[in-house]
Design a protein that fits this description.
Elements (H helix, E strand, L loop, with lengths): L14 E3 L15 E4 L7 E4 L6 E8 L3 E9 L6 E7 L20 E6 L7 E9 L8 E10 L5 E4 L19 H7 L5 E5 L1 E3 L12 E2 L5 E6 L16 E4 L21 E4 L6 E3 L2 E3 L2 E2 L13 E4 L4 E3 L2 E3 L2 E2 L6 E4 L5 E3 L2 E3 L2 E2 L6 E3 L6 E3 L2 E3 L2 E2 L6 E3 L5 E4 L2 E3 L2 E2 L6 E3 L3 E5 L2 E3 L9 E3 L3 E5 L2 E2 L9 E3 L4 E4 L4 E3 L3 E4 L4 E3 L2 E4 L4 E4 L4 E3 L5 E10 L4 E3 L2 E9 L4 E3 L2 E4 L7 E4 L4 E3 L2 E4 L6 E2 L7 E3 L2 E6 L9 E5 L15 E3 L12 E6 L4 E6 L15 E8 L4 E3 L5 E7 L5 E2 L5 H4 L7 H7 L17
Parallel strand pairs: 2-4, 10-11, 11-14, 12-15, 13-16, 14-17, 15-18, 16-20, 17-21, 18-22, 19-23, 20-24, 21-25, 22-26, 23-27, 24-28, 25-29, 26-30, 27-31, 28-32, 29-33, 30-34, 31-35, 32-36, 33-37, 34-38, 36-39, 37-40, 39-42, 40-43, 41-44, 42-45, 43-46, 44-47, 45-48, 46-49, 47-50, 48-50, 49-51, 50-52, ...
Antiparallel strand pairs: 1-9, 3-9, 4-8, 5-7, 5-9, 6-8
Length: 750
């Protein structure tokens, strides 16, 4: 029975569940029972049977919702224990209570709110405590609030039904109506067509405003369809700012267009824009009010998710032709295209303002333009922006950063490609300061007459171990820049310049391959890097330390020019000739120390003409060889600029080599005698021939056939390599290359 003096008020919107009260006369009826929740159900009550003192009730739910149990005694009722659970033998989501003593008046034993619950069977067990049965009456009540759940709203431009959004036939004809009607968890499906945000008011301030926890999908067939038929490319769904529908192909008639086609203000990542073309926004309004930024979309204090969208032909007077991001925002933009957007200031495609971050993935930027900086994207004072798998092609800036202009903070580019972008400086990327991180990215630049990467602040350029940067033209790296990890490739027409206080450090795992020209100047440092180079120029006060350097074959040999006060220390240098370090000792004021030189000769093999190896070392004060011996074993001194000791000189099979004096090097005797060659390990492969040409060669270890060593005047295969452009060269290389007994009176190496 119900006690009207103590009504139980169920939760708002609940459906009450019960069967008729079981009285004492019906004690033979089985205790407990099954409750099926349905609208307009009645109350439930039961009498405890003194024989078993336990009742078990269950409720089966067909849909999700909120379930509320209440168990209470009736007047004079028993002392009870109660517990509830989901499916027998479990206690999921259900609290348990110990025995509770009831007063004489109607009292609630306990209420259970396992909210929310899904479809299934839920149980409550009521047990009388011995000695406290009283009249044995108690009451079980249940209330269920079914969940309405998320719904799908439909939009179709030519729908002629009820236009309440409940189906494709009765679809809304305006996206704005659907956005206003949508609630949390709802999805809006939009059929192919063109939609304006102004509701025919010509209000330039109108925009499509994204909503938290609402997903806006375009790309459905013009008459509607199911999810499997959705194709945003085939069924283009346009959100347009062209309120009059009169934009010309040349950009004319834009004065009526809305300032921003889409807005995302104070929404989270649950606000989704998916499968639309956003076009014809014209942000030419007041800068201070924000109407000169973000013609396609403004993201303000928000982190929406934008996927499978195209931003096309949007314009801004100031910043972000397509998208402007500000006020602590962190949006995610994936699989989108940005084509033919324009800024009359900066950021033709996107402008990311200070203290915001942008995550790009799978996006492409083509033919976007900025009057000043950042043809595709302008990153300003970043807090950790990134681009993954993006392409930048054909974008242009009037001053800096044809594709990307980057000021400060951190920008990570992973698996990205930049090609065909243009700007007077930094045609691909112009980085003012901050940390630029490159990973798994292939940079191929074909721009001419301008550097493609300019780093001018205290930046860090990170190339991950799997990253590759290909430099087709000039790259200028300056100030306090540290390049770490990864690979850098400079083709034959390219030039890589490290200037100011730039540091190249590939951390021994990365490699620099320069088929073009590598230049280090000012106070730049190159260290801990594997370098393969054809032409390298080291100038000013640069430091070259702890590298593995391979001087590629050039004409003649690898060119490795050293000037001024350069410090070259602790390097392993591999060369195929004598141009592993080319410096003029008369003017060189730097440091060359603790380097290890390895020379491998292949010239002359396969009937090719042989080569020359210019000598650099100063002879012993007391040469250990016999007077008429020119190749002998000796204790070879360590490398210095007086000895130029070679760790290993190897002539490959069939190679031919002629030693010749370095007429301008300055390590010869006071009387003009020849320099010598110090080698720790001399190796002659089969059929190789080494002609000392009456120059001294000192070695510690020898491997090969001694008959391959000759002491003859200059051989014809090498003689014709000598240009003899002046008298001094002729006298030094040819005339004095004839045998003369050496005087022991000059001061040599000690």
């Amino acid at each position: 029975m119900k006690d009207p003096a103590h009504p139980w008020i169920p939760p708002a919107g609940a459906v009450l569940v019960s069967v008729a009260l079981v009285g004492a006369a019906l004690a033979a009826v089985a205790h407990g029972g099954h409750i099926t929740i349905a609208p307009n159900s009645t109350w439930q009550a039961e009498q405890i049977d003194p024989a078993d003192e336990t009742d078990l009730w269950n409720v089966t739910l067909a849909s999700p919702g909120d379930l509320n149990w209440q168990i209470r005694s009736l007047a004079g009722g028993p002392r009870l224990m109660a517990e509830g659970y989901h499916s027998p033998g479990q206690t999921e989501g259900w609290p348990k209570t110990a025995a509770v003593v009831f007063p004489a008046t109607l009292t609630t034993l306990g209420e259970y709110y396992p909210n929310p619950v899904g479809p299934g069977t839920y149980y409550v067990r009521v047990q009388a405590v011995e000695g406290y049965l009283g009249n044995g009456l108690y009451e079980v009540r249940a209330a269920f609030s079914p969940s309405t759940g998320p719904k799908t709203l439909y939009v179709r431009a030519d729908a002629a039904g009820a236009q309440d959004g409940t189906s494709w036939i009765d679809a809304y004809t305006d996206v704005q109506e659907a956005l206003h009607a949508a609630g949390p968890g709802d999805a809006i499906w939009v059929a192919q067509g063109s939609y304006k945000p102004d509701r025919d008011t010509q209000d330039r301030n109108s925009s499509f405003a994204l909503v938290n926890d609402v997903k806006l999908y375009g790309g459905f067939p013009p008459d509607g369809g199911d999810w499997s038929q959705r194709d945003p490319v085939l069924y283009e769904t346009i959100l347009t700012g062209d309120l009059n529908g009169d934009d010309g192909p040349d950009g004319s008639h834009r004065a009526d267009n809305c300032y921003h086609v889409v807005r995302a203000t104070q929404v989270t990542s649950s606000a989704l824009l998916d499968g639309f073309t956003v076009q014809a926004g014209n942000a030419d309004g007041d800068f201070n009010s924000g109407d000169a930024q973000g013609g396609g979309m403004v993201i303000d204090a928000a982190s929406p998710t934008v996927v499978h969208c195209s931003f096309y032909r949007n314009l801004a007077d100031a910043r972000g032709g397509a998208v402007y991001i500000r006020t602590a925002s962190a949006p995610t933009i994936e699989d989108c295209t940005f084509d033919d957007n324009e800024s009359r200031d900066d950021g033709g495609g996107i402008y990311v303002d200070c203290d915001n971050s942008l995550a790009l993935a799978g996006c492409s930027f083509s033919r976007n333009a900025a009057r000043f900086f950042g043809g595709a994207v302008f990153y300003n004072c970043q807090s950790g922006s990134s681009a993954l798998g993006c392409t930048f092609a054909g974008n242009a800036a009037g001053y800096y950063g044809g594709a990307i202009f980057f000021t400060a903070g951190t920008l990570a580019l992973t698996d990205c490609a930049l090609n065909g972008n243009t700007a007077p400086e930094g045609a691909a990327i112009y980085s003012w300061s901050g940390s630029l991180e490159l990973e798994d990215s292939l940079f191929r630049f074909s721009e001419l007459h301008c550097p493609v990467l300019r780093l001018l602040g205290a930046e860090t350029l990170h190339l991950a171990a799997t990253g590759t940067m290909v430099v087709d033209n000039d790259i200028v790296v300056g100030q306090q820049v540290l390049v770490t990890g990864g690979d850098i490739v400079v083709p034959s027409r390219g030039r890589l310049l490290f200037a100011d206080q730039a540091v190249l450090d590939l951390n021994t795992s990365g490699a620099l391959t320069c088929h073009g020209t590598l230049v280090a100047q000012d106070s730049a440092t190159i260290r801990n890097t594997s370098i393969t180079v054809t032409r390298m120029s080291l100038e000013d006060n640069t430091i070259i330390a702890n590298n593995v350097i391979t001087a590629e074959a050039g004409s003649p040999y690898g060119q490795f020019f050293i000037d001024d006060a350069v410090a070259i220390t602790g390097n392993d240098i591999h060369a195929d000739g004598d141009r592993y370090m080319d410096l003029d000792p008369a003017v060189f004021g730097g440091l060359v120390a603790d380097n290890r030189i390895y020379v491998t000769i292949s010239e002359g093999a396969h009937s090719r003409r042989g080569g020359l190896l210019e000598l650099r070392g100063r002879d012993f004060a007391s040469p250990p060889c016999a007077a008429d011996s020119f190749c002998c074993q000796a204790e070879v001194p360590e490398f210095t600029t007086a000895t130029w000791t070679i760790e290993r000189l190897e002539l490959l099979e069939g190679a031919k080599l002629n030693l010749t004096n370095r007429f301008d090097f300055g390590n010869g005797s006071a009387g003009g005698y020849d320099e010598v060659l110090y080698v720790k390990e001399l190796v002659l492969q089969p059929h190789a021939m080494l002609n000392t040409a009456f120059h001294h060669l000192y070695y510690e270890d020898f491997v090969g056939d001694p008959n391959g060593i000759k002491n003859e005047p200059m051989l014809g295969f090498s003689l014709h390599n000598i240009a003899c452009n002046d008298e001094e060269e002729f006298l030094t290389r040819v005339v004095t290359n004839n045998y003369r007994k050496r005087s022991r009176s000059f001061i040599g190496f000690k």
